[in-house]
Amino acid sequence: MTFWTLNETDIDRIAIGVGILGTGGGGSPYLQLLIAKALLRQGKRIRMIRPADLAPDAQVIGLGGIGAPTVSIEKMEEGNEGIRVLRAIEAHTGRRVDAVLGDEVGGGNGIYPMITAAKLDLPVVDADGMGRAFPEVQMTSFFVYGQANQPAALSDSEGNTLVITQAKSPEMLEKLMRTATVAMGCTACMTTAPMTGDFVRRFGIAHTTSQAWHLGDAVLQARAAKTDPVAAIERVSGGRLLMQGKVTDIARRIEGGFVRGSLTVAGLAGDQGRTLTIDIQNEFLVATEDGRRLVMVPDLICIVDSETGRPIGTEEQRYGLRVSVLAIPCAPLLRTPESLRMMGPRAFGYDFDYTPFGTATVAHPVAAYAEPAATPIMTGELT
């Protein structure tokens, strides 16, 4: 077994990459970047492990923020929400958590579990359940393929902590957690039911933190070389530039614990005369031009600054921004009939079926997995 021990330059790269993979949602990674770097300077360590390095019976939980991204940039977390939900699950199950991961790699949630892991000296699994960000709790490959509905837990910045001990379906779990999140101020930390290492290896989307690192590295290298960072994102992601233009309209509202609305981008230069409209539910869902759907969930619609390649989330969009809109094919596991029932267009209320964009993307681990593990990542009873 090998670890990838992160340093501050890794965090810089990952923050850019998870912002791109966030497809507008998952929360801004900036605050999580600052916290992660501060913990490293305090002597804490953030250790990534590949899914293949998990023992079959390891106890793994997903950690992340839940709520509206526009709220999370104003209502900051207290810092120990992740520890509270983790301890609540341990107390309920009577078993220690051996490793954590992010249910979604996109946005700030791609870094969120690293903070709790650093404080508790736990490893972080280089995998997630989306390969991007999605707005609803049940929209993960884990739930598609049989993750338990309970126990789940929520905690907010005031210390309020809730454990859900029974939910009849993943969709009901989403309703319960969303309602509680609204009561907590539209932002909280969440975890879903523990998973075994074997389950994560089989049904997680592997090496998505590595994918984020590669994307961020490509952007930073392009900036240093004074070349086009958008072209670098295309090259590394397997995606394609849809349009370069200017944001000419943005409509956002907080409704039911989500950010909903639409975004309009008018083409510039070679795209002059074109107009893209993008639907929003925390994330960018469907991109349409002249009534023709170009890209749709679960494939990724990513918006970055045209000059720097910096990802721009739904909460940051505003009139006049010069942006590049990219489409990136999703992971193969999201294109199965089972996944599309939970994450395809009809799951968001659209009356059309999924049309895939390009060839599904498979992420690869970074070359930095070199530090020998001191102990195996295994499960154990609480004492």
What do you see in this structure?
The protein folds into two domains: 2-208 and 364-372, CV3147-like fold; 228-348, CV3147-like. Strands 16-15-14-13-12-18-17 form a seven-stranded antiparallel β-sheet. It has 383 residues and is of the alpha+beta class. The chain contains eleven helices and 19 strands. The chain is globular and about 60 Å long. Helix content is 29%, strand content 26%. This is DUF917 domain-containing protein. It comes from Fuscovulum blasticum DSM 2131. Residues 169-356 form the S-Me-THD-like C-terminal domain. Keywords: Membrane, Transmembrane, Transmembrane helix.
What would CATH call the architecture of the largest domain? Answer: 3-Layer(aba) Sandwich
Number of helices: 11
The CATH superfamily of the largest domain bears the name CV3147-like domain
- Number of structural domains: 2
Strand adjacency order, main sheet: 16-15-14-13-12-18-17
Shape descriptor: globular
Gap between N and C termini: 26 Å
Question: Which CATH C-level class of the largest domain is it?
Answer: Alpha Beta
Q: Quick one: how many beta strands?
A: 19
Largest sheet: 7 strands, antiparallel
